[in-house]
Amino acid sequence: MAACGNSGEKKDSGMMNTGDAAQKVYVAPGEYDEFYAFMSGGFSGQISVYGLPSGRLLKVVPVFSQDAEKGYGYNEETKPMLNTSYGFVPWDDAHHPELSQTDGVPDGRWIFINGNNTPRIARVDLTTFETTEIIEIPNSGGNHSSPFITENSEYVVAGTRFSVPFPQKDVPIDSYKENFKGALTYIKADEPGNMDVSFQILVPGYDYDLAHSGKGKSHGWTFFTTYNTEESHTLKEVNASQNDKDFIAAVNWKKAEEYLKQGKGKKMPANYMHNYYDEETHTATSTEKKEVTVLIPSECPGLIYYLPTPKSPHGVDVDPTGEYIVGNGKLSADLTVHSFDKMLTAIENEEFEGEVDGIPILKLDAVSAGTVSSGGLGPLHTEFDGKGNAYTTFFISSEVVKWKLGTWEVLDRAPCYYSVGHLMIPGGDSKSPWGKYLVALNKITKDRYLPTGPEMNHSAQLYDISGDKMELLLDFPTIGEPHYAQAIPADIVMKNSKKIYPIEENKHPHAVKNEKDVRVERDGNVVRVYITSIRSHFNPDNIEGIKVGDKVYFHLTNLEQDWDTPHGLSIMGARNAELLVMPGQTETLVWEPQKPGVYPFYCTDFCSALHQEMQGYIRVSPKGANVPIKWSLDGEE
Ligand code: K7E
Ligand code: CUA
């Protein structure tokens, strides 16, 4: 049965049986979804959270971009999260969410995501679904092969997509070959509050595109794809596509740890920020870092090898056993699969065909496990179902191809609407995938939904992969550009979900835990309003004695202790977003009144039947006036 076309024109829905499919994605009102899916926001800079199989949007978590809806990056507490060595950067391009893992299995504690443009990695805490930590990556340009985590969340990794002078300096662009370098960075990730660059490996100035860390037998290694081994710096579409083969870099990070212990790391000056949101003070702080430890491959034998891989490989994906390393050569039709065991043997037997900057290049024959002749075009990414099958996206031929690990035979193929980038199977890059669904993340939406002007939201497509054949179940629109996504069974996350911030644990320096303590204090031209919210009033709600030229800090503590009872605060004319304060939390809005007058402020989140009454007034007098500071609720000070 075909879906209704637009104005009688029939189009291919790609779906076989609408009734069956509908039943499989139907989550009855009041019921929960089976999986949380975390989708990258791409150029929105955020993470969006969807339920699967329904495709319902549950939340947008602000990460790298200011979000006026939640006041993230606008209120005083979260502004430091967006600090970088370039100052306040309120946007980024986020591609790859990675769930934390224990023993190679997603554990639902945190999700990490890369900022591609101004190189950063963020941690989102999955008890609160809030961004709690961001670290900048120095000596990097385009943090794309990131944050692909190691088996016990020891590290998240980051490879330079755009090589740059290392350290940065003013040089002619055409001195690329001599001055530009890549950096492969390992960031310690397993302790909240202590993310830090453990070490960087200085590598040739290629484009390090994607990565995956090994698992099981290959735990201790990370694999990075490269393109532009030509080291061109202009018209890359032509000049970076000359070589028949580029490389997958295999990094032995356990070896790196040994070298660091032996003191082989070189301290180099660097400049990067670490931002941490403390859940007790509800406040983020930024720390500037000044140094990194760098390992040089030529001085550290056995640290890194290159595996020749046709042809400008994009994704590199490691199967659940850790044996197969799949290179998705985006300019080829075939997939090249390397064997981890063969790689170790080839290293032992020194089956090298050359060397670059002290990095041995292994012979392709010596490491190759097989080739998947898919018949597709433009392979990008592969995920696994845990039943011996792999699924690869093909951008140009716009399809997902299912194939068998070990025999390399193609088992099934399904069209995508249209031009699929990443795909995602819950746990599909881990040791034990939950191989029930597959989500294709498509670049072009065109005729799939009602038109919305020149731009259409990108489209996700949900397939049932529990049988032999992939079955398309659902289309749903997404936010920004969800390059990659990850998903996890709901029960792993929801049992830890926080409902409130206990008010007695609130250590915010400007918190007011009791309505008795509300007040307004002046110190020069700085005025601090210690204000509370509880259904359905602010205390105080009448404030006088503010003057033009003052800088007014509204420190709002939400005294509620019930789940899902935030209050908002907005002030007429404030050049700022609202606050949206969770139960037990304190947040600060800064307001610099421009003109004398009396200004209403109000609660923005419909919190009770008397939400419309939750408002107040603040009087602003001219500069130099002597109206005394005064505050009250119902006439009581
Ligand atoms: Cu293939 Cu940025 Cu992971 Cu997009 S990347 S598709
Ligand atoms: Cu408080 Cu609406």
TrEMBL record:
InterPro entries: Cupredoxin, N2O_reductase_N, Nitrous_oxide_Rdtase_Sec-dep, Nos_propeller, NosZ/Cyto_c_oxidase_sub2, WD40/YVTN_repeat-like_dom_sf. GO terms for molecular function: nitrous-oxide reductase activity. Gene3D superfamilies: Cupredoxins - blue copper proteins, YVTN repeat-like/Quinoprotein amine dehydrogenase. Keywords: Copper, Metal-binding, Oxidoreductase. Signal peptide: none annotated. It is an enzyme of class 1 (oxidoreductase). SUPFAM superfamilies: Cupredoxins, Nitrous oxide reductase, N-terminal domain. It holds the Pfam family nos_propeller. It is found in: Cell envelope. The keyword Oxidoreductase applies. Its EC number is 1.7.2.4. The keyword Metal-binding applies. NCBIfam families: nitrous_NosZ_Gp. This is Sec-dependent nitrous-oxide reductase. It comes from Mangrovivirga halotolerans. The gene is nosZ.
